[in-house]
Amino acid sequence: MSETLRVTILDDHQSIVDGYVYRLEKEEGIEVAATVNFGEDLEPALAVHATDVLLLDVNVPTSAGNRNPYPILHSIPQLLQTYPALNILVISMHAERGLIRAVMDAGASGYILKDDQATVKNLGSVVKSIAAGGIHFSQIALELYSKYLSTENNKLPTPRQLEVISLCAAYPDSTSSELAEKMKVSNSTVRNLLSATYLKLGIHNRAAAIARARELGWITPQHSG
After folding, report:
1. Number of structural domains, the chain?
2. pTM of the model
3. N or C: which end of the chain has fewer CB within 10 A?
4. 225: exposed, middle or buried (C-beta count within 10 Å: 0-12, 13-18, 19+)?
5. Tell me, what's the pLDDT at 154?
6. Separation of alpha carbons 21 and 28, rounded Å
């Protein structure tokens, strides 16, 4: 990742795109690399414009001639496989638990709602947090996803979640792709494991997750010798 964070935006409403650009370019250390209105134009744009964070609307048309929704649940894992350092922040009008779950399972780093004005006003800070390996949710989205985690999964971490956080503790500077290689899984799987672990721990970034997991006795304590 370069010193300047490069952001690409996929949204079919130009006024919304303009608003994001306005907020992001006011933030020091962020530049908008590209803006795209149709799903099928996204991969060509990413091939040309190096991108650290992708702002991805879930309900954009596939193309000018195909108004059906772009298949983001198919594209997110593929994008993360092609661009291991890419971080994806989903922005949506839809506060639906199933969609939030599916997007996070696919490997996104967060889910914010378009009517969450407080988050949109601080979009630059959110982007910086996502680029640093954190996660971010609008409050309603967080409550819906947390409900899924508490009702459909055990509140304790899974063996895979413990594995990834223990690897993070051993190799704190490793990227998601490097962790994925060690675990022999996809990048999107690692991102999903980390985000689910963060939420179970009630934190938002890797360093805090390691500290909290140690405090709870989930992983080996810090070596004192």
Report:
1. 2
2. 0.78
3. C
4. exposed
5. 57
6. 13
